[in-house]
């Protein structure tokens, strides 16, 4: 960030920054353990369709049927069992929400998300954790049909918001996403520990 640059918008990743990850490998492995599934087999199918799932090209029902309810899997396992389990994995990070509340009250910055998430899980997380209270826009992979770390998703956000890259600050826990955003000229915070967010924001003179 150059001297004199002023941040006008702060973009947050959701999983790993505001909430726990929506449906990561550890959650999928736990599902396999709890329901006595073959994790290696379900992961092969997941890996084959996960990008399309996050781009909004596959519904949650179709994803579950393909990965977990194929003929090789347990017959007694239902869609509702899996949907319930998936939703239960989402937890909020209180320290981040305290900062979001202060940023929203301050009113100086446009707040939005740039996140990879499938449509149904994204809708659930937005509503369940009242994310519209804090964020003006949700630039989610399932809505834009593109995923991080693809450069185009960051270019698209810049075009839609009509901001300059140096007016934006992006926060993510994954280095590949940070590198992609930085390559577009966006200021970035690589958040490796959630409780370090406050100090990281202060380095950019963010008021909250």
From TrEMBL:
Keywords: Hydrolase
Keyword Hydrolase carried by entry: yes
GO molecular function: hydrolase activity
InterPro entries referenced in this protein's UniProt entry, alphabetically: HAD-like_sf, HAD-SF_hydro_IA, HAD_sf, PGP-like_dom2
Record carries keyword Signal: no
UniProt protein name: Hydrolase
């Amino acid at each position: 960030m150059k001297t004199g640059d002023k941040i006008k918008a702060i973009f947050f990743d959701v999983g790993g920054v505001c909430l726990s990850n929506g449906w990561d490998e550890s959650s999928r492995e736990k599902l396999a353990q709890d329901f006595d599934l073959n994790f290696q087999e379900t992961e092969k199918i997941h890996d084959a369709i996960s990008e399309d799932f996050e781009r909004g090209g596959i519904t949650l029902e179709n994803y579950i049927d393909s990965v977990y309810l194929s003929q090789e899997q347990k017959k007694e396992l239902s869609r509702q069992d899996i949907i319930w389990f998936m939703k239960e994995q989402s937890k909020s990070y209180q320290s981040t929400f305290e900062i979001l509340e202060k940023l929203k009250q301050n009113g100086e910055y446009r707040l939005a998300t740039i996140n990879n998430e499938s449509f149904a899980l994204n809708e659930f997380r937005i509503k369940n954790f009242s994310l519209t209270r804090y964020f003006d826009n949700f630039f989610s992979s399932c809505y834009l049909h593109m995923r991080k770390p693809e450069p185009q998703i960051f270019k698209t956000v810049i075009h839609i918001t009509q901001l300059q890259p140096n007016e934006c600050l992006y926060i993510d826990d994954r280095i590949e996403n940070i590198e992609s955003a930085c390559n577009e000229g966006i200021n970035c915070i690589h958040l490796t520990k959630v409780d370090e967010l406050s100090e990281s924001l202060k380095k950019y003179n963010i008021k909250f």
